[in-house]
């Protein structure tokens, strides 16, 4: 027994050490010079996907998950880039990408942080859709200065980076996820992939199988760069197009950022047309809005480590990263969403349970 306990503590110590050192850092050059696009991740490293160059962390025949971050005010001067280690956002100090790597996925992040570093969220949002918004395509350097950027929208730039960075893709699943403003990019890029597949310029494998919108944000008001549509309206149009192609689309709301009209558009028409989950990250205080906002990312990527989450402790599955695309489609077609019923006071999704809720 003593030997067994010693072995157990040794294993736990190694696991803790690996977890504590899991956060990947980037060189200063990615903040001082313009650097955007796709990075592939391994257990302890990340490597940028460059066109025509083999990447050791990408395999063309693997399932693939892509994460796209949101607004990044102040991140460049602090030399901070999001990864799937969520400790800076109130999550665990472990790289949640590992759970996906363990299950045979390529894990990639599309970075646009230097474009997204604006003091006004609407200025960053405009760059998603147009190169001619209020701030054009300026980008921020780590010295705090802005420089003119390429005359293409972030959607166009990241779409090209994604396609160039996953050559000859034939994996059985392509899943695209976006947090906050990044949800709009998850939709616009998926829309371009869908169009390219329809036109025959890309194989069918490039059409996303699933799209996850993580505490999605849409600003209020008409946008001249969208012919006076709201960004939420534009996103709903894209959702309608992608649903018609059988793509499973899910959303997870975790903060008042997207449910308070004065902060953002709750886009009820979009949320009511897809699989919708309301999270309760009560492990944070009521004033910790930023942490609650990021909790949707933690919940989604961490839930891949567990069996599919369920409804009222039954065998009925609810939306989660571990549930199948068919489960997501089932909830897309119901007249109900789900809301967290237990596990609200702990960070882990492993003890979460849900009940049905009315649509928004």
What would a concise description of this structure say?
The protein is 31% helix and 16% strand. The chain has helices at residues 2-20, 29-32, 97-102, 113-116, 121-129, 154-165, 182-199, 231-243, 268-271, 289-302, 325-332; strands spanning 37-41, 46-48, 63-68, 105-111, 139-140, 146-147, 174-179, 210-214, 248-253, 275-278, 336-342, 353-358. The longest helix has 19 residues, at 2-20.
Features of this protein?
360 residues, ten-stranded mixed beta sheet, two-stranded antiparallel sheet, 11 helices, 12 strands
Helix share bin? 25-40%
Secondary structure tally: strands = 12
Binned strand content = 15-25%
Give the biggest sheet.
Answer: 10 strands, mixed
Question: CATH architecture, please?
Answer: 3-Layer(aba) Sandwich
User: How do the SSEs run, as a string of H and E?
Assistant: HHEEEHEHHEEHEHEHEHEHHEE
Instruction: Please identify the structural class as seen in this structure.
Output: alpha/beta
Count of helices?
A: 11
What is the end-to-end distance?
A: 55 Å
Overall pLDDT: 92
Structural description of this entry:
- The protein is α/β, with parallel strands linked by helices and 360 residues long.
- It has one domain (2-358): Rossmann fold (3-Layer(aba) Sandwich).
- The chain has eleven helices and twelve strands.
- It has a ten-stranded mixed beta sheet. Strands 5-6 form a two-stranded antiparallel ribbon.
- α6 crosses α7 (182-199) and α7 (182-199) crosses α8 (231-243).
